[in-house]
């Protein structure tokens, strides 16, 4: 469990943690000299069962608030210190506001320095803080009156903290850790620390280090200040890593990730929770995990807005951000990521805004996937990154959705596939009306005619599914509706009856057929193309055709030679089928082009034996 301490400067947070754990969380010499926490401090409290409760001591002074914001990602609970002599102060309210805007973790209040005031003052401060926390969304809080010098309330607070339940963490998701410290240890090497936001990690794993943009191997792990070989989300983790990076290559805000990430996000749609109304295109300080950048806000509708980032961030869906004014004096709002890489146009269209609103309310991966599939084909890799799903988690999610069309990385819902099917069938029916003498278009041409702007792989996968379901039929690679019987026109049929006997055994060139029959060459070219579409003949090179059953005979020879010799050559055609070498080469090159064989030197190896089977 991780507990963040919060509170106004000099309200005794660090002293309280030392009384609870015996550890002084001020780790920097400057902090000890000045008597205030200026960076993140850490303390660990071992428990009898072998577990450990981790404390992050975040700075309270206004100048160091950015460091406080870096420390609250991934915490389970917050411990707010309020000094009885001062009472509620500016940073008390500021820290509560930030906690409220970053997920509103469970809250415990410790009234410190109770030895300095009388009971009436304690009662007044207690009433003030209970009213403030209730107003900010914590209707009830556990409150303890403490004094570190004499131990008052310390043991009761310890008992309470021991019994706190940890929040559920995304242990089935990708490992993701925001780095807030990097240092070297003699004899061990490079060490980085942070709080894991999701997933788990083991010694020996390879993680991607952003910033340095390189893979790093995990040599050792400490979780909650204890040596371990396995750590997971919600723990404070130190990782001893090795690879092509040094301490100087690492900055606070870099990430350790289970996989190499996509390009960082420059624009994101967020759901706002405002303490102060924001203005259109207002410049802001933006805090995310251990990162701090600037950007602007574009208000959309209701609590939806777009953040335009001056420096791209590695965001994921549901990540929390804190927005402060550009002078860094006031916390204005919190933001929860709804959509990464927002579209450049159309964001204010009513239909898109309604979809965004539904997406903002979709609090689990299955609902989010369904909404994304409503809008069109999606990328599995992009969705799994956005939701931080590990490969097994993404596969399980996809398997639960019936009727998905899949092509490589892309997914298409059955509902949208139905719309595409209707369009493909309508276009094909219109094609038959306009070209009743032709068998139909090929797959690629049908895709270009019906759905030119959609993902090529998905359209082709859908066409194949339709063929298997009997919605479409294929003849020699030409697609047509069931029952469609192409044929020659009356004039073509008469000419084909004259031409067909010439293809009894030998191949013919278009120009030779035209000369023999006294027909225009273009008329003959169209006739033979039509005959090829109907499966009577096949063009082995442009304008040179062979009877189809002769092509099947050649294919049978290649199939027969495959187990015997593992390959076919032009000499085999010459010797066994009695065709010249030049013609044999043309035939074999035709088989190579269509994927029946592949060439290796002078040999042609069988590649797809299912082609050219006799019907």
Description:
- By secondary structure, this protein is an alpha+beta fold.
- It has 4 domains: 2-162, Rossmann fold (3-Layer(aba) Sandwich), CATH 3.40.50.300; 176-257, Elongation Factor Tu (Ef-tu), domain 3 (Beta Barrel), CATH 2.40.30.10; 362-486, Arc Repressor Mutant, subunit A; 488-615, Winged helix-like DNA-binding domain superfamily/Winged helix DNA-binding domain (Arc Repressor Mutant, subunit A), CATH 1.10.10.
- It contains 19 helices and 31 strands.
- The strands form 8 sheets. It has a 6-stranded mixed β-sheet with strand order 2-3-1-4-5-6, with helices on both faces.
- A hairpin with a 5-residue loop joins strand 2 (41-46) and strand 3.
- Helix 11 packs across helix 12, helix 11 (414-434) crosses helix 13 (456-469) and helix 18 crosses helix 19 (581-594).
- The longest helix has 21 residues, at 414-434.
- It is elongated and about 120 Å long.
- Residues 26-39 and 60-65 have low confidence and may be disordered.
Notable features of this structure?
615 residues, Arc Repressor Mutant, subunit A, alpha+beta, 19 helices, Rossmann fold, Elongation Factor Tu (Ef-tu), domain 3
């Amino acid at each position: 469990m991780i507990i963040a301490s919060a509170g106004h400067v000099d309200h005794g947070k660090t002293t309280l943690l030392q009384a609870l754990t015996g550890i002084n969380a001020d780790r920097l010499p400057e902090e000890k000299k000045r008597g205030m926490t200026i960076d993140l401090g850490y303390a660990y409290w071992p428990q009898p069962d072998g577990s450990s409760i981790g404390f992050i001591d975040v700075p309270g002074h206004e100048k160091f608030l950015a460091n406080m914001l870096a420390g609250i990602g991934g915490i389970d609970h917050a411990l707010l210190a309020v000094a009885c002599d001062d009472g509620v102060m500016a940073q008390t309210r500021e820290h509560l506001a930030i906690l409220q805007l970053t997920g509103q973790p469970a809250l415990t209040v410790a009234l410190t320095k109770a030895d300095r005031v009388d009971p009436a003052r304690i009662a007044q401060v207690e009433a003030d803080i209970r009213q403030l926390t209730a107003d900010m969304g914590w209707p009830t809080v556990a409150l303890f009156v403490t004094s570190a010098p004499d131990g008052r309330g310390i043991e009761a607070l310890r008992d309470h903290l021991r019994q706190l339940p940890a929040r559920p963490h995304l242990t089935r998701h990708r490992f993701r850790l925001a780095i807030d410290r990097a240092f070297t240890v003699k004899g061990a090497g490079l060490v980085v620390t942070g709080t894991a936001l999701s997933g788990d990690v083991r010694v020996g794993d390879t993680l991607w280090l952003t910033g340095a943009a390189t893979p790093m191997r995990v040599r050792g792990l400490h979780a909650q200040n204890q040596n371990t070989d396995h750590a997971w989300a919600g723990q404070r983790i130190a990782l001893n890593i090795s690879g092509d990076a040094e301490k100087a290559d690492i900055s606070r805000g870099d990430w350790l990730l289970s996989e190499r990430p996509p390009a960082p996000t420059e624009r994101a749609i967020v759901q706002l929770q405002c303490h102060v109304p924001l203005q259109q295109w207002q410049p802001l300080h933006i805090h995310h995990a251990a990162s701090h950048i600037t950007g602007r806000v574009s208000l959309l509708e209701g609590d939806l807005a777009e953040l335009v980032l001056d420096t791209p961030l590695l965001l994921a869906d549901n990540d929390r951000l804190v927005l402060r004014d550009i002078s860094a004096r006031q916390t204005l709002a919190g933001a929860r990521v709804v959509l990464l890489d927002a579209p450049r146009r159309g964001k204010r269209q009513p239909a898109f805004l309604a979809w965004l609103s539904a997406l903002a309310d979709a609090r689990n991966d299955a609902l989010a996937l369904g909404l994304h599939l409503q809008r069109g084909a999606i990328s599995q890799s992009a969705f799994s990154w956005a939701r931080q799903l590990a490969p097994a988690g993404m596969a399980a999610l996809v398997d639960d959705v019936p009727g998905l069309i899949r092509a490589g990385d892309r997914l298409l819902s059955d509902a949208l596939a139905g719309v595409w099917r209707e369009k493909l069938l309508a276009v094909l029916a219109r094609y038959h009306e306009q070209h009743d003498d032709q068998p139909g278009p090929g797959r690629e041409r049908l895709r270009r005619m019906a759905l030119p702007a959609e993902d090529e792989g998905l359209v082709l996968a859908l066409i194949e599914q339709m063929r298997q379901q009997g919605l479409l039929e294929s003849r020699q690679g030409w697609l047509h509706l069931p029952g469609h019987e192409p044929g020659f026109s009356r004039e073509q049929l008469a000419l084909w009856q004259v031409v067909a006997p010439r293809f009894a055994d030998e191949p013919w060139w278009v120009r030779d057929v035209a000369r023999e029959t006294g027909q225009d060459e273009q008329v003959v070219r169209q006739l033979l193309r039509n005959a090829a579409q109907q499966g009577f003949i096949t063009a082995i090179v442009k304008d040179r055709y062979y009877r189809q059953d002769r092509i099947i005979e050649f294919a049978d020879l290649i199939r027969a030679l495959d187990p015997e010799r593992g390959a076919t050559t032009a000499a085999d055609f010459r010797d066994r089928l009695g065709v010249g070498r030049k013609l044999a080469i043309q035939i074999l090159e035709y088989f190579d082009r269509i994927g029946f064989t592949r060439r290796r030197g002078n040999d042609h190896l069988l590649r797809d034996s299912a082609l050219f089977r006799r019907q």
